[in-house]
Amino acid sequence: MEVDDHQFEETEEIYQRSLEDVHEILKHAKVDEKTLTPLTQAIYYPDEELPDLRLVELDAHILQQIHEGSNMYFKGGLDEKVVLCTDEKTYEVKTAEISNCLLVIPDLKYAQQTSKSPLKSPKNQKGNSSFNNSLNDSTEEENMNRSLESKKVQKIFNEYFELKEIKPRYKKIGDLLQMTRYSGPENEFCIDHKLLFTYDELFDTIQCSRKEFNEGLRFYRAIELDGFFRIMDYEYEYRIVNHMVQLINENSWSLDHIDRNTTYQSLVGIAPREIVEGLFEIYTKHSE
């Protein structure tokens, strides 16, 4: 059986609301048109597949980050709950149900936008004055010629993502770096280099913001060595720190005036410069 395209288009138009339909519906509903604004909006569900959108509840911090164009990240492994991270905070992402469906309709107009004359503000009185009365007063003054606009639903939401600020989950930093503890160049042949992490690789894995991630690196005393972050074996760290303390005593340096360059030169062959620099960052602070 052949179907005429023109006939199909005409059949499809039957399902589009007309002004006559609007007048008839208002009549059956016993609604006086004079109490309504002159614009009617007919809402339609789209025939095409709805876009893949998600509804997310935002607090003031995240909203500010969006306005400023800051980066945000969703993080989570197969056995982890998803978190949203800004540059400063971490949020757990939970799904919350909506009791009534929410429809996203672009360019949908509200009452004041559908009226030709400005609507009066509702009065805070004990009488019958209300927004509806102000709407009636406004529309009665209009010489109404009802118009009809079609609006398409862009998305229907039955749930949304709820964000709850949580403490940073940077314990995983210690768990991952524990596998490649640094105990000196002579023991590097024992290390599986496939388990080494750069800053970016480690940051992408840890569920926390960049600020919290940097705090986690300091907490675990992680040091960048040859482009990868490592934590030191306790005995090795104690041995190098002990060399540094002996050097301070030998040179009678004040604790406020430790010569970094001399320390670097004195420990050449004992520890990599990056290790010594990292220990300075962990155990000392700059003095003027």
TrEMBL record:
<dbReference type="Pfam" id="PF09724">
    <property type="entry name" value="Dcc1"/>
</dbReference>
<comment type="similarity">
    <text>Belongs to the DCC1 family.</text>
</comment>
<dbReference type="GO" id="GO:0000775">
    <property type="term" value="C:chromosome, centromeric region"/>
</dbReference>
<dbReference type="GO" id="GO:0031390">
    <property type="term" value="C:Ctf18 RFC-like complex"/>
</dbReference>
<feature type="compositionally biased region" description="Polar residues">
    <location>
        <begin position="115"/>
        <end position="137"/>
    </location>
</feature>
<dbReference type="GO" id="GO:0006260">
    <property type="term" value="P:DNA replication"/>
</dbReference>
<feature type="region of interest" description="Disordered">
    <location>
        <begin position="115"/>
        <end position="147"/>
    </location>
</feature>
<dbReference type="GO" id="GO:0000785">
    <property type="term" value="C:chromatin"/>
</dbReference>
<dbReference type="InterPro" id="IPR019128">
    <property type="entry name" value="Dcc1"/>
</dbReference>
<protein>
    <recommendedName>
        <fullName>Sister chromatid cohesion protein DCC1</fullName>
    </recommendedName>
</protein>
<dbReference type="GO" id="GO:0034088">
    <property type="term" value="P:maintenance of mitotic sister chromatid cohesion"/>
</dbReference>
<keyword id="KW-0235">DNA replication</keyword>
